[in-house]
Amino acid sequence: MAILSALLAGFATALTLTNLGWCLIGTTLGTAIGILPGIGPALTIALLLPLTAHLDPTGAFIMFAGLYYGAMYGSSTTSILLNTPGETGSIITAVEGNLMARQGRGAAALATAAIGSFVAGTIGTVLLTVVAPLMVKVALKFGPAEYFALMVVAFTTVSGLLGASRLRGVISLFLGIALGLVGTDQLTGQARFTFGIPNLLDGIDITLVVVGLFAVGEAFYVASRHDLRTAEIVPIKGSLWMTREEWARSWKPWLRGTALGFPFGALPAGGTEIPTFLSYFLEKKMTSKPEEFGKGAIEGVAGPEAANNSAVAGVLVPLLTLGLPTSATAAIMLAAFQQYGLQPGPLLFTSNSSLVWGLIASLYIGNIALLVLNLPLVGLWVRLLTIPTPLLYAGILVFATLGVYSLNQSVFDLLLLLIIGIAGYLMRRFDVPVAPCIIGMILGPLAEENFRRALSITQGDPTVFVRQPISAALLLIAALIIVAPSLLRLRQRRIASV
Amino acid sequence: MLSKNEATAEILVGLGIAVLGGFILYETGNIRVAPIYSKVGPAVIPYIVGGILAILGLALAWQGWRIRSGAAVQLPGLDAPGSLLDTPGTSGHATDWKALALIGLGLAVQICLLDPSDAPFGIDTLFANLSAPVAKAITAISGFIPTETIVFVCVAAAFGSRRPVRDALIGLVLAIVAYVGFVHGLRLPLPPGILAGVL
């Protein structure tokens, strides 16, 4: 019962007045940014980083985690009422949910999304509570070779599973790794890719890259496309109290979505999008009313919304126990840990146990707060959607540049921001996903460090990565992930030609 | 289905990435590696990253070339154009260059005028050598509050706003609130410009 006592101690931390306050700020802010198009959790945490540098880390992380959870709740509202997903995890909700709203069943869609998010968020947090300590035991056995192999697995999965082409995902990943190389080499102190510019010696700040890609690049992109600028808000109709039939059709998708979401978040398998797609297709197969899919089926909202919230809980497992981010938001949270001089990983559970368990306990509280914020109070939030797009994006860019300037009080950073913003625009324009770039940038230096540590332990013998069983198994998994899609395609072609 | 123009763009993007990879390889050659680190020193990973980027860029260009010449079709992904999950970002939409230029203009003005003494590309020395009346005019619109108001108006205009006066007022209020909040609330310094000592 070590977990239970640790969790109780965590509640003692989370229930202090200050930390409850941070939890409320995080969940409220998270709901707001989830609802507002053009600003997401990764961007918001990046902009908050300079402001939270002097805060107590426990409070800051309670706020960040609440914000991440809250963004998933809030973005479903935008998806349902505006048909523009607030976050990528809600793309599916924008399909069925918006159709429901157009048929006058918007309130039921909002209710099943919010309650499903609560169910999944809470079960996901329970799973996090149970799984994290087990992962810590595994992680304690990891040396540099295993960490390197694990990061290779993360690289293969975050870049390649979804999108117009796997090639573009891998390109994005390596662009991020290349950005991470700029600056002083951590092991030798040698300057790399600094071109004699002193501002580059400390490397490029991850906040700058996140803001450049997500705020500046996004603003460029949305402005360049007239069809993305205007969207019509469907007013909420119907009762927020779901009918007996709606409950009956929702509860199974919630549970199935939760079951799909958590492992996809927890394994280094790339964030919240994939489980929502899988959940949608699963519900389409399982439903007794397949004719409603594509016309506003409640299952198609309940399942994916549960999946994205439980995936967020899952993402926290590798982040806290291994220091391995599997989404852009997790990557920026890892940067936040580094800002405080904390290294997430198995040792964090012993050296900063009040932070870790306080954070986990606050997630239970945050879920309850979010259910209240997003169901009875949903009418208030909808008013945010009436902010005219020009003012919204102008405001986002002013605060984005302000956040970047206050990192180092340097105009050079604003120049870099513009360059990365243009790169972000080109990536969006040519369908290159942005998240792998962020993950590559934060994981690249860690992977390099572990790679070189592992090799220096063995005096440069590269077989170290395959001689140790855990590392060999991980590298084999990575190889399979790279090869499998091509093999499947080959097989399909063969079947097709017969 | 990708149009011919999109396929050409794909070739160009691929070649651009390949050039970037080549540049990384070239620059890695300039990293001085002490002999004790000769086995796994600071240049190993940059060589690998540069090499892989060059290969990936060429692969993308090759893919574009094959689509362009009709030898291959774009494999439909889950988010292929027209499919259920067609995410914005795919082909077939006109680009509003004026909007892009307006945002770029706003951000460029900010780089030059936020803190003219710190501006890059020798703009700082250019400002320092200006005649007194011109320099005075520039000081009047430099600093955080005027610059951010300009950014706000430019971005709002790029997003189709036709009310620059209203936008300027909202931007000004927002900039003043942010300035006071950051400088006095959070004690993070921002360039005051002409308002030095006033706010």
Multimerization status:
heterodimer
Radius of gyration of chain B: 24 Å
H and E string of chain A: HHHHHHHHEEHHHHHHHHHHHHHH
Number of strands of chain B: 0
Mean pLDDT of chain B: 82
SS-derived structural category of chain A: mainly alpha
> Which sheet architecture does the biggest sheet of chain B show?
none
Helix content of chain B: 55-70%
Which sequence of SSEs, written as H and E, runs from N to C of chain B? HHHHHHH
Taken from the alpha-carbon principal axes, the silhouette of chain B is extended
Largest sheet of chain A: 2 strands, antiparallel
Alpha-carbon distance between the two ends of chain A: 59 Å
Roughly what fraction of the amino acids of chain A lie in strands?
under 5%
Q: What percent of residues of chain A adopt helix (DSSP H or I)?
A: over 70%
What general outline of chain A do the C-alpha atoms trace? globular
Beta-strand content estimate of chain B: under 5%
- Mean of residue pLDDT values of chain A: 87
Counting DSSP H or I runs of 4 or more residues, the number of helices of chain B is: 7
Helical stretch count of chain A?
A: 22
How large, in whole angstroms, is the Cα Rg of chain A? Answer: 22 Å
Count the beta strands of chain A: 2
